[in-house]
Design goal:
Layout lengths: L3 H17 L4 H17 L4 H15 L10 H16 L16 E6 L6 H14 L4 E5 L7 H12 L2 E3 L7 H15 L3 E5 L8 H13 L4 E7 L4 H13 L4 E5 L8 H10 L3 E5 L7 E3 L2 H9 L4 H11 L2 H13 L4 H13 L3 H6 L4 H4 L3 H4 L2 H12 L3 H5 L6 H11 L3 H25 L10
Bound molecules: guanosine-5'-diphosphate.
Guanosine-5'-diphosphate (GDP) binds next to helix 5.
Organism: Diplocloster modestus
Subunit structure: Part of the signal recognition particle protein translocation system, which is composed of SRP and FtsY.
Keywords: Cytoplasm, GTP-binding, Hydrolase, Nucleotide-binding, Ribonucleoprotein, RNA-binding, Signal recognition particle
């Protein structure tokens, strides 16, 4: 699985952080050191790791705890955000000319990187976007390269242009573009020859093509499993030929993730697509934010953290914490908490964002029925201020009045009062266990 080992390591580090609740600066520093080790072991470029750790450290150490987040969560959030930045922050598309013109894409890469396969995968993607691609067999050296392109082109329903192996690639490219313009193709994808290593002949051949035909995008295909080698190859191609974007193949088998995390930072060139398998449909657009979530194994927890940050009012949270500690919690507070949850999209939505939670709580909708929440709200709103702050005055006749007011059965009012008392008892024990999850500034 992609990034398994890096992901496992980071998740363990974060699990330790989270379980602590209250963190000292030394805790944070120790965890970040572990993050650094994990990245180096994942074969992330040393220079990139250094820059990354500097950025994270500056933000994480001495940072105030934000609304509703404990320091552990804060560190995770910072690591995530810096990881997204490292990979380019934004999704980049292949830059295509308008459909009325021909866009020429030159695919480059070492032998075995997955160039021919990726070329056909991209043709399929562009076809589904309404383009009419032409695949061009410019790899005249590797035995069976032409045939492989032909087979893949057929599978994708995309025409393949070939002149056998006796013509120079630059001449094949020229002829292909002419063929494309006569036959209404608006994307020409040149499958150039790779070598086992970067060598001068290969580079010269690519330069010759670039000098003689208008190449709109030079795209480099690299094998993610080769880690830092992939990054070095990208650097060399960029210096000699100039690349517009990278396609990272075999990410499905890359447990470390070093190439994915380094390429953008080292070359400044975006990753456009990632290869996730041998099938022609196994090509995905590259989203830095989703990739970071994948690496951190966090699912939508990050969205959840974001929500908590946006939606919880710090002063209110602190006041609530004070009330909880003193067990002064009344029905008004209960109501306010419920409204907070509603504002954040309801309990079932929130719980669903926690990885594994959805599966664990199959009957989640029954357990946290948002409609039931509205009935509870109606009951509380039917109470007098005195009843809300001091529920012990709730005798049967008051309960009957509340039930009538809220349009529910009296047994529901009884259940609510009972649940509330139980909850209050639990909350009295809770502040000690919470370790400062709500509000207050800590960790210093
Ligand atoms: P080329 O020499 O660069 O043209 O490489 P090929 O396109 O012939 O691919 C080399 C091998 O890698 C083939 O067996 C492909 O099926 C395989 N391959 C290509 N892309 C991927 C990918 O994203 N994931 C996996 N698992 N295999 C891939």
């Amino acid at each position: 699985m992609a990034f398994e080992s890096l992901s496992d390591k980071l998740q363990n580090i974060f699990k330790n952080l989270r379980s602590k609740g209250r963190l000292t600066e030394a805790d944070v520093k120790a965890s970040l050191k572990e993050v650094k080790m994990a990245l180096l072991e994942a074969d992330v470029s040393f220079k990139v790791v250094k820059q990354f750790m500097k950025a994270v450290q500056e933000r994480a150490v001495g940072q105030d705890v934000l609304n509703g987040l404990n320091p552990g969560q804060m560190v995770i959030k910072i690591v995530n955000e810096e990881m997204v930045n490292l990979m380019g922050a934004e999704t980049t598309e292949i830059a295509l000319q308008p459909a009325s013109e021909i866009t020429v894409l030159m695919m480059m890469g070492l032998q075995g990187a997955g160039k021919t396969t990726t070329t056909a995968k991209i043709a399929g993607k562009l076809k589904s976007k309404g383009r009419k691609p032409l695949l061009v067999a410019c790899d005249i050296y590797r035995p069976a390269a032409i045939q492989q392109l032909q087979i893949n082109g057929d599978k994708q329903g995309v025409e393949v242009f070939s002149m056998g192996d006796k013509n120079k690639p630059v001449n094949i490219a020229k002829a292909a573009i002419e063929h494309a313009s006569k036959n209404g193709h608006n994307v020409v994808i040149l499958d150039t020859a790779g070598r086992l290593h970067v060598d001068e002949d290969m580079m010269n051949e690519l330069i010759e093509i670039k000098e003689n035909v208008t190449v709109n995008q030079s795209l480099l295909v690299v094998d993610a499993m080769t880690g830092q080698d992939a990054v070095n190859v990208a650097t060399m191609f960029d210096e000699k030929i100039g690349i517009d974007g990278v396609i990272l193949t075999k990410l499905d088998g890359d447990t470390r993730g070093g190439a994915a995390l380094s390429i953008r930072a080292v070359t400044g060139k975006p990753i456009l697509y990632i290869g996730m398998g041998e099938k022609l449909s196994d090509l995905e657009q590259f989203y830095p934010d989703r990739m970071a979530s994948r690496i951190l194994g966090m699912g939508d927890v990050l969205t959840l953290i974001e929500k908590v940050q946006n939606d919880i009012d710090e002063d209110k949270a602190r006041e609530m914490e004070r009330k909880l500690r003193k067990a002064e919690f009344g029905f008004d507070d209960y109501l306010e908490q419920m409204q907070q949850i509603k504002k954040m999209g309801g309990l079932s939505d929130l719980l669903g964002m926690i990885p594994g939670m959805g599966a664990q709580m199959k009957n989640i909708d029954e357990v946290v029925d948002d409609k039931a929440m509205s009935r509870v709200e109606a009951m509380i709103l039917s109470m007098t201020p005195q009843e809300r702050t001091n529920p012990s005055v709730l005798n049967p006749s008051r309960k009957k009045r509340i039930a009538d007011g809220a349009g529910v059965n009296i047994s529901e009012v009884n259940r609510l009062v009972k649940q509330f008392e139980q909850g209050k008892k639990m909350m009295k024990q809770l502040p000690g266990m919470m370790g400062g999850k709500m509000g207050g500034k800590r960790g210093k």
